[in-house]
Automatic annotation (TrEMBL):
Keywords: Autocatalytic cleavage, Decarboxylase, Lyase, Polyamine biosynthesis, Pyruvate, S-adenosyl-L-methionine, Schiff base, Spermidine biosynthesis, Zymogen. This is S-adenosylmethionine decarboxylase proenzyme. Pathway: Amine and polyamine biosynthesis; S-adenosylmethioninamine biosynthesis; S-adenosylmethioninamine from S-adenosyl-L-methionine: step 1/1. It catalyses: S-adenosyl-L-methionine + H(+) = S-adenosyl 3-(methylsulfanyl)propylamine + CO2. Its cofactor is pyruvate. GO terms for cellular component: cytosol. The keyword Plastid does not apply. SUPFAM superfamilies: S-adenosylmethionine decarboxylase. The lineage of its organism: Eukaryota, Viridiplantae, Streptophyta, Embryophyta, Tracheophyta.
Length: 345
């Protein structure tokens, strides 16, 4: 841990691959053996603490956040002082040499670090991250853009880098409906609610059993009651969970320590479902954040998703302070909104 405190804000990397061999495509990246995955995570400097899978994908809780492995897509989200971008080279190598898969798109996103000076290279600045990405990614990913999406507060901006080839391989559909990715970052959590993510000294529980209790006690299990949940409670505090429901995932990570409290919620969803109101209400109820950002990534943002998000958050006592849109070549759009509490807590 950094001397100053634990960095809750995650770095998130999403890589898409393609291949010609149908026997590999069916399971694709899921066929990577556990040793190879561990080598990738070693480069990032984190480890697997728990895992679950279904017919569509595998979800791993990590010592620092989460990993999702689909046949042609991998999502790694890591916090603290991990070196997430160092996973790219080994992943490209293993996917190509063990599975015959080729990288066709890369998306890297993160919020603003609470302790930027504690980050190791290449996460020392967004400029360093972009230089590293530019130098590491193969030339077929020719459509590239880096952007810092601002908010009204200098300490809350959304950093996005995308690189894609011209195959349009990263758009995802669920029963013909386009999927979005929603990433919520919350700081200044209600200190009483944050206590739910501390363990009692000497509780003699395992990380799994203590995690399960937190999932139930806090109401996290009600966000998507259909999801199969894999959860873990750290000692003395901290919590991570992955939920899997068909080919959709959700994930929550909590750093509850006062002074640098942070929680994140992320999921994929379809614009046709009207669950975003329920999700926002539950997530805000569980954490009561002083500040919250919501980022939506999708290929077409004409459906006004942000108005639904803003009205759900405003109904829960938060006020929308900013809304920024940006488009990325061959990689869709991102809408970034920030909210703060209306009342002094
Ligand atoms: C890994 S979890 C959740 C990460 C997530 N990005 C977040 O901050 O919301 C981080 C929390 O667990 C605590 N923690 C306790 N032991 C830990 C360990 N061995 N590795 C990582 N975090 C640990 C940290 O102090 C922090 O409160």
């Amino acid at each position: 841990m950094a001397v100053s405190g634990f960095e809750g804000f995650e770095k998130r990397l999403e890589l898409h691959f393609f291949g010609d061999d149908p026997t590999f495509i069916q399971m694709g990246l899921r066929k990577l053996d556990f040793d190879s995955l561990q080598q990738v995570l070693k480069a990032v400097q984190c480890t697997v603490v728990s895992a679950v899978g279904n017919a569509y994908f595998d979800a791993y809780v990590l010592s620092e956040s989460s990993l999702f492995v689909y046949p042609t897509k991998i999502i790694i989200k890591t916090c603290g002082t991990t070196q997430l971008l160092k996973s790219i080279c080994p992943l490209i190598y293993y996917a190509h040499h063990h599975l015959g898969l080729t990288l066709c798109s890369c998306r890297y996103t993160r919020g603003s670090f609470i302790f930027p000076m504690s980050q190791p290279f290449p996460h020392t600045s967004f400029k360093d991250e972009v230089t590293y990405l530019e130098e590491t990614l193969p030339a077929n990913l020719c459509y590239r853009k880096a952007s810092i999406m601002p908010s009204k507060s200098a300490s809350h901006s959304w950093h996005v880098f995308t690189a894609t080839d011209d195959s349009n391989c990263q758009t995802l559909y669920d029963n013909g409906h386009e999927l979005y990715t929603m990433e919520i970052c919350m700081t200044d959590l209600d200190p009483i609610l944050a206590r739910n993510f501390f363990r009692l000294p000497g509780d003699e529980k395992t990380g799994d059993s203590a995690g399960k209790e937190m999932t139930e006690l806090t109401g996290i299990c009600d966000i998507n009651p259909e999801a199969l949940i894999c959860d873990f409670a750290f000692d003395p505090c901290g919590y991570s969970m992955n939920g899997i429901d068909g080919h959709r995932y959700s994930t929550i990570h909590v750093t509850p320590e006062d002074g640098f409290s942070y929680a994140s919620f992320e999921c994929t969803g379809s614009f046709e479902d009207d669950v975003v109101y329920h999700i926002m209400r539950k997530v805000i109820q569980i954490f009561r954040p002083g500040t919250m950002s919501v980022s939506i990534t999708c290929s077409d943002y004409s459906h006004g998703m942000w108005t639904r998000i803003a009205s759900a958050a405003e109904a829960m006592g938060l006020k929308c302070r900013s809304c920024t849109l940006d488009e990325f070549p061959a990689a869709g759009g991102v809408v970034f909104q920030t909210f703060t509490t209306r009342r002094k807590k």
